[in-house]
Amino acid sequence: QVQLVESGGGLVPAGGSLRLSCKASGSITSIDFMAWYRQAPGKQRELVARVVSGGDTNYADSVKGRFTISRDGARDTVYLQMNSLKPEDTAVYYCSASIRASELGYFQDYWGQGSQVTVSS
């Protein structure tokens, strides 16, 4: 069974930095894209950043130049380095990945448990 396990959330003052990690485990044959989403109270979940298997990345306009997504293929892990954090970055951050598990034979989207990031003003 495939799982995504996140770590690294917390409370940080405005202007600070945090690094989120998300490791995929289980009977994984291959991983297509890995991504980070976030959901603030009362708002819809939004894409923050995504990295595809070839290494190309894309970011939400609101985080460009401040956040960096990276992927360690050998460890099936994706990271989100968040710098110059703002109070409006406060949200629950979710890891997501498109994974082909050996028992399924096709790609399916999986989600992590969510990590709270709180930026104080």
What does this structure look like?
It is a single chain. 0% of the residues lie in helices and 60% in strands. A hairpin with a 4-residue loop joins β7 and β8. The relative contact order is 0.32. With 121 residues, it is mostly beta strands. The protein contains no helices and eleven strands. The strands form two sheets. Strands 2, 4, 5, 6, 9, 10 and 11 form a seven-stranded mixed sheet that branches. A four-stranded antiparallel sheet has the order 1-3-8-7, with no helix packed on it.
Summarize this, please?
The chain is mostly beta strands and 121 residues long. Helix content is 0%, strand content 60%.
Could you give the distance between the termini? Answer: 41 Å
Shape: elongated
Average pLDDT works out at 96
Element-level helix/strand string: EEEEEEEEEEE
Rg on CA atoms, Å: 14 Å
For the largest beta-sheet, the strand count, sense and barrel status come to: 7 strands, mixed
**Number of E-type strands:** 11
Q: Counting H and I runs of at least 4 residues, what is the number of helices?
A: 0
Q: Tell me the strand percentage band.
A: over 45%
What portion of residues is helical?
Answer: under 10%
Helix and strand composition category: mainly beta
Runs in which pLDDT lies below 50 for 5 or more consecutive residues are none
